[in-house]
Amino acid sequence: MSTALLEQQSETVMHFQQLFQEKEQKLNGQANAPLPRLQRLAMERLAETPFPTRRNEDWKYTATTRILAPAYAAGQEVDLAAEQVKAANIVCLDAYVLVFVNGVYSAKHSQIYGMPPEMTLWPVKDALKDDRFRPLIEAQLFHEENQVHNAFEHLNMAFAEHGQFIHVPKNVVVDKPIHFLYISETEDQPVFTHPQIIISLERSAELTIIEHFTGTVNAEAPYFTNVANRFHVAENANLKHYRIQDENMKAFHVNNTRVRQDRVSTYSGYLVDLGSRIVRNNLGAVLLDESTNTNFYGMYFGRGEQHIDNQTFIDHAFPHCESNELYKGIVNDKASAVFNGKVLVRQDAQKTNAYQQNSSLVLSPKAVVDSKPQLEIFADDVKCSHGATIGQLDENSVFYLRSRGLSDQQARALLQHAFLKEVLDFMPEEKVINASEELITKKFQGEF
């Protein structure tokens, strides 16, 4: 690491340490509560863990220097009007809604009444005080499959004040999705926020969650959304997880989501990634027993100078498991995209079915896509495939649509929409599809 990078990292960590000390001074005698103790441990690990640089193989296409350059302050809630929240909540769906403004939970804008009484949805800081739930949370944070050396995850744990814990007991099917709406609005001070969701689904439970990250048009200063999620999906349980990201072009967004699955369980992740200046998504699933099903579906669209980096990992350690992965993206102008998907099939994981595909459209000579689908197979009785395609719009198709009365812009937008629609078609929630299509249309029209 160069001297300049070392100096920047040192200054960055010192700044975070100062912010952490200021936060601890406001604890008013609660310094030994379970959450502050975990946060001090995370801060100690952060001091020992360098932020990744381009010298790290998994980060060689994404520089973190720009993300870490601003002198961030902790996000403070802004009193948004109900109309502003309604405008941000484009997923008009019958759901339980939790609203966070600059990372701070807003009770007055949230709608959580009527949840199944068997289910628990508590702030992490409260769940850690309960003897029933503390072991579940600690198992998520400290399980060997989740042991990481990722500075961004340590940073999240050190500063996450409004993380949420969800526990769904066995055989409980939650009747409506839980929608986490994260709204950022900054003025002259760069801020960082640390969304965090920890989920424990017991045997045969079912849950759908939606994460929606957005920034208001009034956001002036750069801001950083640093997400860390931990999910455990027990035997025969089913978790559907939507992520919609349409933050403004001053935003930096890092998302680390780790999933652990028991036998006959299903996890399905659906990503719609459209906003932010720099985006880095790390999504990983560890399959801990037989007959699991894992689905990663993602779509992204970058324009201007956006940079979108998707890293996925699926660890097949047991036989008779299946995984399906499809990511499709479009880049225009000077935008760039990265896809690095790794599927590991261990020696004992016989009868594995694993499919992985990344396809991209490059619409400008200055746009760039780097794609690296990976299969590492150590079993001999498997069905595995992977592939990557990078191409341009078919000009014959553009000509045909124009001959039918569409303008050149309309023809190209229609073909691009059709290219992405394959991913949207995997989404079971129709209103999420409609909301995503609305955002895609705005993106095509250059509205963000």
Structure description:
The chain is of the alpha/beta class. It has a domain at 1-280. Helices cover 25% and strands 38% of the residues. The chain is built from 10 helices and 21 strands. Strands 1, 4, 5, 7, 8, 10, 12, 14, 16, 18 and 20 form an 11-stranded mixed sheet that branches. The protein is globular and about 70 Å long. The chain starts with a helix and ends with a helix.
Strand and helix layout:
Blueprint: H1 3-24, H2 34-48, H3 65-68, E1 73-74, H4 82-88, E2 96-101, E3 104-111, E4 120-123, H5 124-127, H6 134-142, H7 151-159, E5 164-168, E6 178-184, E7 191-193, E8 196-201, E9 206-215, E10 223-233, E11 238-246, E12 251-261, E13 266-273, E14 278-287, E15 293-302, E16 307-316, E17 322-331, E18 336-345, E19 353-362, E20 368-377, E21 383-391, H8 395-403, H9 408-424, H10 430-444
Parallel strand pairs: 1-7, 2-6, 5-8, 6-9, 7-10, 8-10, 9-11, 10-12, 11-13, 12-14, 13-15, 14-16, 15-17, 16-18, 17-19, 18-20, 19-21
Antiparallel strand pairs: 2-3, 4-5
Helix pairs in contact: 1-2, 2-7, 8-9
